[in-house]
Write a structure and sequence with these properties.
With 556 residues, this protein is an alpha/beta fold. It has helices at residues 3-8, 20-30, 41-48, 59-62, 68-75, 103-106, 118-216, 223-247, 260-266, 268-274, 296-312, 331-334, 359-362, 382-392, 447-459, 470-477, 497-507, 543-554; strands at residues 11-14, 35-37, 54-58, 85-90, 109-114, 256-258, 279-285, 292-294, 318-329, 343-352, 396-402, 406-414, 439-443, 463-467, 485-489, 513-517, 534-538.
Amino acid sequence: MTNVQATSERAIILAPLGRDSQIALMMLNEAGVDGVICRDLFGLCAELKHGAGLLLVSSEALLGSDLEPLLRLIEQQPAWSDLPIVLMTHHGGPENNPASRLGSQLGNVTFLERPFHPATLISLITTALRGRRRQYEARDRLIDLSQSELRLQNTLETLEQQVEERTAQLRHNEEALRQSQKMEAVGQLTGGIAHDFNNMLTGIIGSLELLRRRLARGRTEDLDSLIDLGVTSANRAAGLTHRLLAFSRRQSLDSKPVEMNTLVISMDELLQRSINESIRLDMQLHEQLWVAEADPNQLESALLNLVINARDAMPDGGSLLVKTWNEHLDMGFTEAHNNLEPGDYVVLSVTDTGCGMPQSIINRAFDPFFTTKPIGQGTGLGLSMIYGFSKQSGGHVAIQSEVGKGTTVNLYLPRFGGELPQDSPINIQHAPYAQKGETVLIVEDDPAVRVLVSTVLSDLGYAFVEARDADSAVPILDSLQRIDLLISDVGLPGMNGRQLAEIGRQLRPDLRVLFITGYAEHAAVRGGFLDPGMQMITKPFTFDLLTAKVREMIRV
C-alpha cells in the first residue's frame, strides 16, 4: 500500500477519555484498517489536512470545543468528497447526548451508541471506507474526464488551427487557380485576336501595297478589286472589335422600345437566306407580346448569330424554331444569376434539332474564341457577343442542350416600362453639300482620324476648325467663331468629350454635338449619356454615315 493510499484510507481517532482511543485503534488494526490517534480537535484538524478515510470521534471530544476549524474543513471539501464520520455517543437518546445535535453540521455522520460490540464498530468502519473508496473512484473519473476534456480542448484547438491553415491554403490555391484561369482566358483571348487580326491586316496591308505598286507602274486597271479586298478585311476587323466590345459589355447600346415580333418578321427573308434548303424554319410568335427594351441593331445581330449557329448544328437538315413569349422571373430564378433583377422579361428563343452539346461544351459556350467548328469556319465570338449584349441590356441568356436531340437558346430582355414614343417623322433628304459658311469644330486626338474627317467635310463644302484635345477646343467655343456642329471623340486625353460638350453648351446653349467613339465605358448606354441635340456614331464608321449625320444635325 502506498503512502498516499494509506493516508487516504486511514481512520483518524479522537476519544480523549480513558483508553477508548487505544481500544478503538486495536479493533481497527485487527480488521486491517490503519488509524492514527489525536489528543484534541486541533490535532485532528491537522491530520485531516493530510487525508483520511473516516473520522472516529467520541461525542465528549466535541462538547465545549471550538468546532469552527473542523466545520470549515468539512465545508471546503471538493465536490466529490463526503467525509464519513462515526460519532460514538452515550446510550439514552439525543436528550442525553448533546453532541448528536451536531449531525446536521458535520454532514455524513453515523451514530454509534456505547457500549457497542466490536463487530458493530468494524461493520460501520468497513461500510464507511467502502463508501469513501467510491468517492475516490468518482474523483479519479472526474480527473480523467478533466484530462480528457483538456486533451479534447487541445485537440480542438489543434484542429481549429489546422482548419485555419487548411482554409488559408485552400484560399491561396483558389486564388492561384483563379489567376491561372484568368491568364489562360487572357491567353486564349489574345491568341484569337492576334490570329484573326493578322489575317485581316494581311488583307488590308497587302491590298494597299499592291495598289501602290500598280500605281507606281502606271497600271490603273482592275484597282476596284484590290480596294474591295482591303475594305472587306477592314470591315471584318471592325466586326471583330464590335464583338469583343459586346462580349466585354462595353459596346455603345442605343436601347429603345422594341416590338420583337415585328423585328423577327422583318428578318424572315434574311433568316431564310441564311439557312439551308434542308432546314425548315418555323416561327411561333406570342400574339400579346410585351414591348422589350434593347438595342434593335444588336438584337438583330444576336438573332442572326443564333440562327447561323443552329444551321451549322444541322448539316443534314432539320427543324429550326424561332419563338417569343412573355415571362415573369421571380427572385428564386434571378438570385442564381448576377445582375439580374426580378421582373417582366420578353423571351426570344431559337431551337434546333441538331447534334446538341454535352455539358462540358455548354459550360464553355460563352467563352470568347471557343468554338467547336473547324479552323476558319468560326471565330467563336457569336455566343460570347450575345452573352455580353444580354448582360449589358439587363437581361439573361441560357442554353439547354442534349446530345443528339438539339439545342435551345433563350434570350431574356427586360420589358419596356415607360411610355411608347410617337411615330418618328419621315426623314427629309438633306442637300448633299454644305451651305455657305456652315462650320464644324472637329476635336480628335488621333491625327489620322482628324485629317480624314476634315478632308471629307471639306470636299462637301464645310468649313472646319480642328483641335487635338478639349483644352484646345474650349477657347474656340468661347470665341466669336461660327460653329454649327461640334464633332468630338469621347475618349480624349484629359477632359473627355462629354465634359467638353457640357462646357460647350454653357457657352453656346444651342450647340449640336456629334460624338464619335471607338470605346467609351460611360457611353456604353446612350440613353444616359446623350442629351437632346446630341448623337453618336462608333468607330470605324463609313464616310456616308458621317456625312449623313452631319447634314441631318446641321439642317434640323
